[in-house]
Each structure stands twice: as structure tokens, then as C-alpha cells.
Amino acid sequence: MKKGLVVDREAQMIGVYLLAEKQTYRGIPRKKVLKKTKIYAGDYVWGEVVDRSSFAIEKVEERRNFLVRPPVANVDKVITVMTIKMPEFDSFLLDNLLVVYEHFQADPVIVFNKIDLLTGEETKTLSYWTDLYIKAGYEVIKVSAAKNKGIEELKDYLKDSICVLAGPSGVGKSSILSALLGIKLATREVSEKTERGRHTTTGVKLFPFGENSFIGDTPGFSSVDALYFVEKKDVRLYFREFLRYQCKFPDCTHTKEPGCSVKEAVKKGEINCQRYTNYLKIIKEDLSIAKQLCQ
Ligand SMILES: Nc1nc2c(ncn2[C@@H]2O[C@H](COP(=O)(O)OP(=O)(O)OP(=O)(O)O)[C@@H](O)[C@H]2O)c(=O)[nH]1
Ligand SMILES: [Zn+2]
User: Fold this and answer.
1) CA atoms within 13 A on the CB side of 276
2) Can you give the residue range of the structural domain that contains 34?
3) pLDDT of residue 203
4) Are 78 and 49 contained in the same domain?
5) Annotated binding-site positions for Zn(2+)
């Protein structure tokens, strides 16, 4: 049997990209397959080529994960796109996104776009946030989709992975997609957006790019309340820098417990106050706890 990746999933359409020959076929699932599972973009499937255009799907591999928005399976990386300005950076929004994607076991990479717009002072602001998130344990890549800066570095980082874009409206998700695919911006922007808008479909396409990478054309969350997906008690597990500390109680929520090493770290400046405040805000805790530590 041959291995393929579902790259197109819309209504009755299943597009299967055969990894060895780099060709897309129309996937026709056997009845026994459909009885067992639904098929999503990002699914790895096994089967046989039937004729020049069709591929019979015999088996769907177990999914490593499944992102509800966009509906894509086996997502390795989520490119969370942010900007310092236009629109202004919002760390609370970013931290919510990071929590949700960590929860889905998709590795979030923070991409600051539109760096071409920044003045000297704003570049300092960019460095501040970049350092903060790198220290916290995240990968940060600075790009300008408009000037095609940093795109190769991003491509390298996304090597061998299935990825999707997320982030607020206007940060340049479509522009980054175009840059990664090497498609001219204007045409794509127009066609994709009106196309999706008109049909209001839930379909997703994955496009091959770079070295064995695939990227979804339907963006993920623009904003999200992490508690919609993650239990309050688990949010602490998705702040990477918190995991470096051991508190007196293993299930410490880092709020009111004695012997909390995370709070100690906030006090000493090892954990950033803004991050800790956002943590409290996400779990809807009393923000005065942070104020006391961050004087
Ligand atoms: N200066 C500058 N402008 C950019 C850059 N990337 C995108 N833009 C512009 O920012 C605007 C928004 O870009 P889009 O790619 O449509 O942003 P989006 O995140 O897909 O927006 P939504 O579809 O609303 O979610 C457009 O006018 C782009 O031309 C960049 O690197 N630098
Ligand atoms: Zn603690």
C-alpha cells in the first residue's frame, strides 16, 4: 500500500497527496473505512492507486492530534502571528492562543510580522517581547511578509511539518501564507478571501511548500478564551516557564498556596510579571496576587 496525506477536504471531496510521488489523487474511501472514522485534512491514509486520478483509501492512521479550528489533524506547528503595531500587540491574546495550542499538542511558534513598519523605539518594544517569549521557552521569528524578510528562516523552522496560521485580524496571515508559498500576494488575497466568504464552507486545503511541509489555507483562532477548551486546573501546564519550578504541592495552582516556587520566581524576576498576570487573568483569579509580587 501507499501512504498519502489528505490535503483537500471539502464536502464530498477528498484530495490525497501521495508522499512518494508528490501527486494529488481523488481519494475514495472504502466503506469499511467510513464506518470507522471521519476523514479530515491532515489525516495520513494508506491505500492503492486505482487509476490516473483516483486513490482507494483502505486505512486512516490514528491521529496525533486534531485542531478544531481549522479542522486539521496531525498539526505539528501553529504559526501564531502577531504584530507590534497595526494591530497593536496584545500579550493576553497571545497567551490565550499559546495555552490552547499547547493543549492541542500543536507546537506554537510566535511570528512577529510587519517588522518593516517599526521605528527605533518600536524595535525596542519588539526586542522586549521577543526576549520575554524566548526566555519563557518559545520559538520567536521576526518577519516581514511585505518585504519577504525572515520568510526563509520561517520555512526552515517549519521543515517536515504540517502547520496552520492563527492570530488576530490584519496581522498578515494571508500575506505570510502567500510568501511561504511564493504566490503573488494580490491575486491570492482576493481570490481566497472572496472564495471562502462566498461559499462559507468549512473546507480546508493544505498546500505543500518548502521541504516536505504543508500549510493550511484556513486560519485558526483569531482570539480565544482558553477556558473554553482547557480546564482551569490545567492552564498552569501550558505556561512553559512554570514547568521549570517545583512547588510544595505538585498540583499547586500558583495562586494562594504556601511554598509556591512559581510565585517566588515571579518575585525574583525570573518569571515575567506580565505573563504571570495573564495567567491569573486566564484562570479568572484575583489580579492583586500579581500586584503584590511585581512591585
Ligand atoms: N507593512 C507591512 N504590511 C503588511 C505585511 N504583511 C501584511 N501586510 C498588510 O497588512 C494587511 C493585512 O494583511 P492580511 O494578510 O490580509 O492579514 P490577515 O491576518 O490575513 O487578515 P484577516 O484576513 O483579516 O485575518 C494588508 O493590507 C497587508 O498588505 C508586512 O510584512 N508589512
Ligand atoms: Zn506554585
Assistant:
1) 27
2) 2-60
3) 83
4) no
5) 247, 252, 254, 260
